[in-house]
Specification:
This protein is of the alpha/beta class and about 425 residues long. Helices cover about 45% and strands about 10% of the residues.
Length: about 425
C-alpha cells in the first residue's frame, strides 16, 4: 500500500522492520546488563560496549518519545472531541454474541442485556442452551478465508437475516448495563471496563491498559483507528456486507475497522463502558497480549506507510517498556565525563515516571479510589513489565492460530461494586 491507500503487492514481509528493531534493542539491553552489573574477565571491550549501549538507549529514548508524543496528541484530540448526538435507538440494532461453547458465561451476558435489545443472537461453535436468545451453530463444513472468530463472523454475516440498521457485536463475557442508542456513524466503538476475576496483577495491568486506551477517544479525528475492540462494537449492516470478515488475521476487529475506514466508513467512539473480564491468570494475559502483538505485526501491511511506521514504533516501544526502569539503573554506570550524561539521567527519570500518567488515567477511568486499583501506583514498574511480557513473547514466538482467552464463570466473576467501582455506563468526562 502507498500512503494514499494504494496496494503494493511487493511488500510481503511486514515482520522485518519490527523484528530488526526489536533484535537491536534486545542486544542493547543484554549489553547494558553486562556493563551495569559487571562484565566478565573474558570481555575486554567494556568501554566500547558502554558506548554502544549509550547510543542504543538514546535511540530507544527517541523512539519512545515519538510513541508517547503521538499518544499525548491523540489524548488531546479525544479531550477536544464531542461525541455526535444519538440518531438510532435500540430498535435499530441486532445483537450478535460470539462464543465457542461457554454457555454459562453467555447466559449471564444475555440476561444483562437491556430489554430494548430484543433481537439477540448467539453465534457458537457448538450447540449450547441459552435462554433469551437464538443460538446458531457455525457448520463444520463452512469454509472461508477467515478462520476461528473471523470465520464465525463471516458465516453469521452471510446466513443470519438482519433487517436492522446496525449489528452490535459482543464477546461472550461482555455485559451491557444500559444502551441508549447510536450516533449516525458507520462503526461505533464502545469502551471496555475489565472486571476483577481473581488475579490482582492482571487486573492492575488492565487498569494500566485502560489508562493508555484513553487515546481511543481521539481516533475519530485521525484518518484511521489504530485498534478496535470487537467485544463491544456496532457496525452498520451495509458496511459489514461491503467489507466482510473474509480475511485471514488474528485481530479481525481491528483489521475490519482498518478496511472499512479506508473504504470511507466513519468511525466514532462512545464513552459508554461495557463490562468485560480481565484475564484470570498471568498465563492467559500473556497469551492474549502475544496474539494482539502478533496480529498487528502480521497485518500492518493493511495500513498506509506512515501508519505502518507508527505501529512499528508503538509495538516495539510496548514490548520494551520495562527498559524505562533499566534506563535509571544504567545511568548510574555512565561516567560523569560522558557527554550528555546529565540530560540522559533526567530523561531516564522522566520516562520512568511517564507511565504513571497512564496509571493515573486508568485509575480515573475506574472513577475514583478503590482498594483494588490504588495498589497499582505502588507496583506499577512490575505491572508495566507484566503488561509488556506478552508482547515481547509475540516477537520471540508468534502464535500460529487464534486462542480464546479463558473466562471466569458466573461464580468466579466479580460484578459488584464492593471495591468502590461505580456504574461503568457513566461517561468518563
Amino acid at each position: 500500500m502507498t500512503d494514499d491507500g494504494d496496494e503494493d503487492d511487493g511488500r510481503t514481509n511486514p515482520f522485518a522492520a519490527d523484528r530488526l528493531l526489536a533484535l537491536f534493542f534486545l542486544a542493547v539491553f543484554v549489553a547494558g546488563l553486562v556493563v551495569t552489573l559487571g562484565s566478565p574477565t573474558w570481555l575486554p571491550y567494556r568501554p566500547t560496549l558502554r558506548g554502544f549501549v549509550y547510543l542504543g538507549l538514546w535511540l530507544f529514548v527517541g523512539m519512545y518519545a515519538v510513541a508517547t508524543g503521538v499518544w499525548a496528541y491523540e489524548a488531546y484530540l479525544g479531550w477536544a472531541h464531542d461525541s455526535p448526538p444519538l440518531a438510532y435507538g435500540p430498535d435499530d440494532v441486532q445483537v450478535r454474541i460470539l462464543t465457542v461453547d461457554a454457555a454459562d458465561v453467555v447466559q449471564q451476558t444475555v440476561e444483562t442485556l437491556p430489554d430494548e435489545l430484543a433481537d439477540c443472537h448467539v453465534v457458537a461453535e457448538a450447540d449450547i442452551d441459552v435462554d433469551g436468545a437464538a443460538v446458531h451453530v457455525v457448520p463444520d463444513e463452512f469454509s472461508s478465508v477467515a478462520s476461528d472468530k473471523g470465520r464465525a463472523l463471516e458465516w453469521a454475516r452471510r446466513e443470519l437475516p438482519c433487517e436492522k440498521e446496525f449489528v452490535l457485536f459482543l464477546d461472550e463475557d461482555t455485559l451491557v448495563p444500559e444502551f441508549e442508542g447510536l450516533p449516525d456513524a458507520d462503526i461505533v466503538q464502545f469502551r471496555e471496563w475489565p472486571t476483577f476475576t481473581g488475579s490482582y496483577l492482571t487486573y492492575w495491568a488492565e487498569v494500566l491498559r485502560m489508562g493508555y486506551q484513553t487515546e481511543q477517544t481521539g481516533f475519530p479525528a485521525l484518518n484511521i483507528p489504530l485498534y478496535a475492540w470487537g467485544g463491544g462494537i456496532a457496525v452498520r449492516k451495509s458496511v459489514e456486507d461491503s467489507v466482510t470478515w473474509n480475511f485471514e488475521t488474528l485481530i479481525e476487529d481491528t483489521v475490519f475497522a482498518w478496511q472499512a475506514v479506508r473504504a470511507g466508513a466513519e468511525f466514532e467512539v462512545l464513552d459508554t463502558k461495557f463490562r468485560n473480564q480481565a484475564p484470570p491468570s498471568l498465563r492467559a494475559m500473556f497469551e492474549q497480549r502475544r496474539r494482539w502483538l502478533t496480529g498487528t505485526l502480521r497485518d500492518e501491511a493493511y495500513l498506509s506507510r506512515r501508519f505502518e511506521a507508527l505501529m512499528t514504533i508503538r509495538n516495539v516501544a510496548w514490548a520494551f517498556s520495562p527498559l524505562t526502569a533499566f534506563l535509571i539503573l544504567f545511568s548510574g554506570a555512565i561516567p560523569t565525563t560522558t557527554p550528555g550524561q546529565v540530560p540522559f539521567r533526567i530523561v531516564a527519570w522522566l520516562m520512568f515516571g511517564f507511565s504513571l500518567i497512564w496509571v493515573w488515567r486508568g485509575w480515573r477511568y475506574y472513577e475514583g479510589p478503590s482498594l483494588r486499583t490504588l495498589p497499582v501506583f505502588l507496583c506499577y514498574p512490575l505491572v508495566v513489565a507484566f503488561h509488556s511480557a506478552g508482547a515481547a513473547w509475540g516477537f520471540l514466538s508468534p502464535p500460529e492460530s487464534f486462542q480464546t482467552t479463558a473466562k471466569a464463570d458466573e461464580a468466579g466473576r466479580d460484578e459488584t461494586s464492593a471495591d468502590g467501582d461505580s456504574n461503568p455506563a457513566d461517561g468518563e468526562r
